[in-house]
Design brief:
Elements (H helix, E strand, L loop, with lengths): L1 H17 L8 H28 L30 H7 L1
Length: 92
């Protein structure tokens, strides 16, 4: 009985070694797996960025514009004077 199991196991093992093997062990298979991993990583990053953009932000409160007020009052403050080289010599 054991001999029969070992013979069938040996035949299965030999047939597995003769066949080209799993597609993941070929060059194109490894490239496809690497590309799938890259796509998963990029889509995960994109989804994270989208979820950050969707977070509710504080809305700008609606407010009415203020009334325009025109005032012609004179403020008691010294008026600004420009000082140039010609002006400073004439004042002295």
């Amino acid at each position: 009985m054991l001999e029969r199991i070992l013979k069938s196991l040996a035949v299965i093992l030999a047939s597995c070694l003769i066949l080209p093997g799993c597609a993941h062990f070929t060059k194109s298979g490894r490239q496809q797996l690497a590309y799938q991993k890259y796509v998963r990583k990029c889509s995960y990053t994109r989804d994270r960025q989208r979820s950050k953009m969707k977070t509710p932000r504080a809305s700008i409160p609606a407010s009415a514009p203020s009334d325009n007020k025109v005032s012609a009052d004179v403020v008691n403050a010294p008026s600004p004077q420009s000082v140039t080289a010609g002006d400073s010599q004439s004042e002295q």
